[in-house]
Design brief:
single chain; two-stranded antiparallel sheet; about 0% helix; about 60% strand
């Protein structure tokens, strides 16, 4: 069984037991969060069209909050002696997908 969820403006293909990093959620560590599945499939329903796919809820547990890798932003204008560097670390939440329930 798998599902496609949307959070933080991005879509993720998830299966039960998977651990993934998503945009920061406003949920405490250890709590559970529920996502509405955009699309889902199971072993019981085969060759179903996207419009015929059953609605589902995805339950996940928040493991921890963390920051992603540092991304360096460097700007330079040639022949102008202009150089500017800055960095960014995205706030992320690590979640573990516990269950996908067809509704």
């Amino acid at each position: 069984m798998y599902a496609i969820i949307e959070t933080g403006g991005k879509q993720y293909w998830v299966v039960p037991g998977e651990v993934l990093h998503v945009e920061k959620l406003t949920v405490q560590e250890g709590e559970e969060v529920t996502f509405k599945a955009l699309w889902s499939a199971s072993q019981d329903v085969k060759n179903a069209a996207a419009s015929d796919s059953p609605a589902a809820k995805v339950t996940a547990r928040v493991i921890r909050h963390l920051q992603g890798p540092k991304i360096i932003v460097f700007r330079k204008k040639t022949k102008k002696a202009y150089e500017k560097a800055s960095g960014h670390r995205q706030e992320l939440t690590e979640i573990e997908v516990k269950d996908i329930q067809l509704t």
